[in-house]
Design a protein that fits this description.
The structure is a single chain. The protein has about 425 residues and is an alpha/beta fold. It has helices at about 10-15, 20-30, 45-55, 75-85, 95-100, 155-175, 195-200, 205-210, 235-250, 265-275, 290-295, 310-320, 325-330, 335-350, 395-415, and strands at about 1-10, 35-40, 60-65, 90, 120, 125, 135-140, 145-150, 185-190, 215-220, 225-230, 255, 280, 305-310, 350-360, 375-380, 385-390. The protein is built from 15 helices and 17 strands. A hairpin with a 2-residue loop joins strand 16 (about 375-380) and strand 17 (about 385-390). Helix 2 (about 20-30) runs parallel beside helix 6 (about 155-175).
């Protein structure tokens, strides 16, 4: 089965709101063997919505819409869907009772505009929305369906998990042939230290021998290339694993991880497995590493803290970097980052530490140390090491790449 997402709202098209809903839905659909064919964003405009619906129904079995279900004049989705499916609005007593219960502690919300929320299309199947006032609507067009949901992310996610996905999965089980129920499988590994073009040459024979329905995608970002192997119903789990193992063997020299997890999650898992801890001393990255390391639940098991030493006085007074060393070697140097890493390691009593110092620009570079020069040091139970990197010319790009290099280097050292 194929699905298409139509996100409705001017706010998405002017960049005022970022569409996180589609990425979340795409992951959940793929987990359940439903291929997402296209994502379309449209204005709060009747003709634009209708055109998008016509085109989507010409391509897919399931259309998922989000947005435009509020009580204000700019929310027109429900009215457009009535026109499209040739129906009209009627009062739904269940939705009305739900809204009264939802807002019983806020009587000011129960006004004439809120009352429009319990008006629903007569021909639609109405599913409960336990956390919001906009009902979930299912429309049928032959053997294809449309599910309309709110655009508020937490409402949409609960709606998908509790109502829409179970509905779609049940329909799929009843209508799809056994052959078409074979799973959609994605397996991803991450490599570094090789150019994308060189990697493609390395894997040329592998790609040429892949069966029909198996695809390999190259997804480079900040010095790490994710290789995603995808089977859209072509292979069984065991067959897919065989090809994935071959891919891992071919890329073993450059392999960082054989999962699609963020690097900081991999770091956390490795540290927790060893019962080890980490701290950071950050200059050019300004706390980005710290933010990544404590981003996910459970980080308190391994992440102790950081010293953000952007100014030289902090490096000197807190981490013990001498002014003489800075004068002799410069703040962006192997000598300085080694001291930073070892000092924070000792100061916070951790097993591992990372230190960064670089020139993020746009000014401050020189012929000897141009913008983008970054030194990173790792203090580990086996000793301290440091490497110099040249990470581009754009400030945000440099700091993001520095964090990636720092985490990749740590993963290798932990292993």
């Amino acid at each position: 089965m194929r699905a298409e997402i139509i996100t409705i709202g001017d706010e998405l098209l002017i960049g005022q709101v970022v569409d996180t809903n589609s990425a979340w839905m795409a992951q959940r659909l793929n987990e359940h063997g439903i291929e997402l064919y296209q994502i379309t964003s449209v204005h709060d405009d009747r003709e634009h919505i209708i055109k998008a619906l016509d085109e989507a129904f010409g391509r897919v079995d399931i259309v998922l819409t989000t947005g435009g279900l509020g009580p204000t004049k700019d929310d027109i989705t429900k009215h457009v869907l009535c026109d499209y499916f040739g129906t009209h609005l009627i009062e739904d007593q269940r939705v009305r009772a739900h809204i009264y219960d939802l807002y019983k502690a806020r009587p000011d919300v129960l006004n004439r505009l809120t009352a429009t929320q319990w008006l629903v299309p007569e021909s639609a199947e109405i599913l409960p929305n336990r956390v919001g006032s906009a009902p979930l609507m299912i429309f049928h067009k032959g053997d294809r369906i449309l599910a309309s949901m709110p655009g508020v992310p937490y409402e949409m996610e609960i709606a998908m998990e509790e109502q829409i996905l179970p509905y779609i999965i049940d329909k799929r089980q009843k209508t799809v042939s056994l052959k078409d129920k074979r799973p959609i499988i994605h397996k991803t590994l991450q490599v570094t230290g090789i150019a994308e073009s060189s990697l493609a040459i390395l894997l040329e024979d592998f790609e040429n021998t892949m069966p029909e329905g198996l695809h390999l995608a190259y997804l480079p970002k900040d010095g790490v290339i994710r290789l995603r192997l995808s089977s859209y119903g072509a292979l069984t789990e065991d067959e897919m694993q065989t090809y994935f193992d071959r891919l891992k063997d071919l890329t073993n020299t450059y392999l960082v991880a054989d999962t699609d997890e963020p690097l900081e999650v991999i770091v956390g898992r490795l540290l927790k497995a060893k019962g080890a801890t980490i701290a950071t001393a950050e200059s050019c990255t300004g706390g980005k590493l710290a933010s990544l390391l404590n981003k996910h639940p459970g980080s308190s098991a391994f992440y102790f803290g950081s010293v953000i030493c952007y100014d030289n006085s902090v490096k000197e007074q807190v981490l013990g970097v001498s002014s003489e060393m800075i004068k002799a070697h410069g703040v962006v140097s192997e000598e300085v980052v080694r001291v930073m890493a070892e000092s924070v390691h000792e100061l916070l009593g951790t097993d591992f530490s990372i230190a960064t110092s670089g020139i993020a620009g746009p000014s401050g570079g020189s012929d000897a140390k141009p913008v983008g020069t970054v030194w990173i040091a790792w203090a580990t139970p086996q000793g301290t090491s440091a490497e110099c990197f040249h990470l581009g010319k754009l400030r945000e790009q440099i700091t993001d790449r520095a964090c990636v290099k720092a985490l990749v280097g740590l993963i290798k050292r932990i292993k």
